[in-house]
């Protein structure tokens, strides 16, 4: 039986290792630190199935001068001399047409819907999968009429795809989520996605790994960094780690933002670039929002998770480091208090965090075979890795084993 090594123990690596081990395959998971410690750790917690919108769009293109000049507090672009940055940016700009935006958004939507089904099946199989899962739905609020109208057009596209979303007036939005009565934002309109869910991705990753080790004999090696692939002819024989070689027959790269550097050691180029974001977690107040809220102006999300409120946002393109920068966290806190003044107990001890999203130029994850016959990729999930993890894992397992050709054929997979 073929031995499989999955590299990277974030939500994508753990779901992938579980999907393969469940099929009875001998799987080892290699993680350089602790499971779920990367971008997965304190993300926005949204299972945002309905909001699959690609980052590259005509409206982003129009606001590019503003973004490059640093006039949008939510975005920062760190210009670099690295040619890979310019190649990524060129490809991103090519994806900002209306046609590419629609195609990329719908491709991610298909994967998101597959993920919703995959997570439901996983939860049904394992009653002890614990991650503060809740299904409150989501409200996207807009203070700008033209942007709200553009969102309505996107909603119509998704409705045609069978997705339940509806447009609400300010009064209707407040009726659905009373916490909005205190907002200082002028609400021009809101998009309600009643079937969106939420859950703690870190707890999920830890819990699923424990279950997979117990029930499917998944072997987990933490504190082991993959340094490079060791090739033999056209195949990979092993990965080098500080404590020696780890051999396998099939390798799956799921190392988030580190995937492109590692893939290069096997001669494979992946267009993945980091986009840094921040979160703060605080105790919930008695009037914290029940639904997940996205403030389209500040581009921040609020989510109440079992007595805690997680607020996440900021998009700093080109930053690989995960230090919590005081000015960015202050901006996040100021935006959050302006949008929902009663969302949390602000004077309680906050947990501040920063992480880096693995972004592709077309906002579609790379779930793929490669030019190296025994190397597969499951990475580049960008802003939606938690949402897309379970479907991506099933898809990659189908691709490797050939066990579910209908699922693999249903998605247009690219080869790298
Ligand atoms: C602020 C913020 C908010 C977000 N909010 C949401 C949200 O609300 N909903 C949503 O769906 N998504 C959200 N995301 C995106 C989501 O968190 C990511 O897309 C997702 O976590 C990516 O998972 P991953 O497993 O690919 O990467 P990671 O979680 O980064 O995992 C990669 C793992 O690989 C390990 N690794 C790296 N290199 C090596 C190596 N050489 N050897 C061994 N191990 C290695 C790392 O230690 C890490 O544990 C958010 C992200 C951020 C930053």
Walkthrough of the structure:
The chain is built from 12 helices and 20 strands. The relative contact order is 0.21. The chain has helices at 11-21, 58-62, 64-68, 83-94, 98-125, 145-160, 170-176, 201-216, 259-264, 326-339, 385-401, 405-410, and strands at 4-7, 27-30, 46-47, 75-77, 138-142, 166-168, 189-193, 197-198, 219-221, 228-232, 235-241, 244-247, 250-253, 273-283, 292-295, 300-305, 308-317, 351-359, 366-369, 375-379. A hairpin with a 4-residue loop joins strand 15 and strand 16 (300-305). The longest helix is centred in the N-terminal third of the chain and has 28 residues, at 98-125. The protein is globular and about 65 Å long. Strands 4, 5, 6, 7, 14, 15, 16, 17 and 18 form a 9-stranded mixed β-sheet that branches. Helices cover 34% and strands 24% of the residues. Flavin-adenine dinucleotide (FAD) binds next to helix 1, strand 14, strand 18 and helix 11.
What is the element layout, followed by pairings?
Blueprint: E1 4-7, H1 11-21, E2 27-30, E3 46-47, H2 58-62, H3 64-68, E4 75-77, H4 83-94, H5 98-125, E5 138-142, H6 145-160, E6 166-168, H7 170-176, E7 189-193, E8 197-198, H8 201-216, E9 219-221, E10 228-232, E11 235-241, E12 244-247, E13 250-253, H9 259-264, E14 273-283, E15 292-295, E16 300-305, E17 308-317, H10 326-339, E18 351-359, E19 366-369, E20 375-379, H11 385-401, H12 405-410
Parallel strand pairs: 1-2, 1-13, 2-9, 4-17, 5-15, 13-20
Antiparallel strand pairs: 3-8, 5-7, 6-7, 10-11, 11-12, 14-17, 14-18, 15-16, 16-17, 19-20
This protein binds flavin-adenine dinucleotide.
């Amino acid at each position: 039986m073929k031995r499989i090594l999955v590299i990277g123990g974030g939500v994508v690596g753990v779901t992938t290792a579980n999907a393969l081990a469940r099929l009875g395959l001998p799987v080892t998971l290699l993680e350089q630190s602790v499971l779920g410690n990367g971008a997965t750790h304190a993300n926005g917690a949204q299972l945002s199935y309905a909001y699959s919108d690609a980052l590259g769009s005509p409206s982003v293109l129009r606001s590019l001068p503003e973004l490059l000049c640093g006039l949008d507090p939510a975005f920062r672009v760190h210009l670099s001399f690295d040619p890979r940055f310019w190649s990524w940016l060129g490809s991103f700009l090519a994806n900002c047409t209306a046609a590419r935006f629609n195609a990329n958004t719908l491709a991610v939507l298909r994967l998101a819907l597959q993920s919703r089904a995959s997570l439901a099946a996983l939860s049904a199989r394992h009653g002890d999968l614990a991650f503060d899962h809740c299904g409150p739905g989501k409200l996207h609020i807009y203070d700008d009429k033209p942007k709200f109208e553009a969102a309505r057009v996107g909603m119509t596209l998704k409705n045609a795809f069978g997705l339940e979303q509806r447009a609400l007036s300010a009064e209707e939005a407040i009726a659905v989520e009373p916490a909005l009565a205190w907002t200082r934002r002028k609400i021009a309109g809101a998009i309600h996605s009643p079937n969106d869910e939420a859950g703690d991705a870190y707890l999920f990753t830890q819990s699923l790994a424990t279950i997979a080790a117990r029930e499917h004999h998944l072997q987990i090696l933490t504190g082991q960094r993959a340094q490079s692939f060791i090739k033999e002819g056209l195949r990979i024989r092993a990965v080098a780690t500080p404590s020696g070689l780890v051999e396998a027959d099939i390798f799956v790269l799921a190392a988030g933002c580190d995937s492109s550097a590692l893939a290069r050691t096997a001669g494979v180029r992946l267009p993945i670039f980091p986009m840094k974001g921040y979160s703060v977690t605080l105790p919930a107040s008695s009037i914290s929002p029940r639904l997940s809220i996205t403030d389209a102006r500040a581009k921040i999300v609020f989510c109440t998770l079992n007595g805690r409120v997680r607020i996440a946002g900021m998009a700093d393109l080109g930053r690989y480091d995960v230090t919590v920068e005081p000015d960015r966290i202050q901006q996040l806190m100021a935006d959050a208090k302006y949008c929902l003044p009663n969302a949390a107990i602000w004077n309680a001890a906050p947990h501040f965090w920063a992480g880096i999203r693995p972004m592709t130029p077309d906002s579609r994850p790379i779930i793929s075979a490669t030019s190296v016959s025994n190397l597969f990729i499951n990475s580049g999930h960008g802003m939606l890795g938690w949402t897309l993890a379970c479907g991506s894992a099933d898809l990659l397992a189908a691709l490797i084993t050939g066990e579910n050709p209908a699922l693999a054929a249903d998605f247009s997979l690219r080869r790298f």
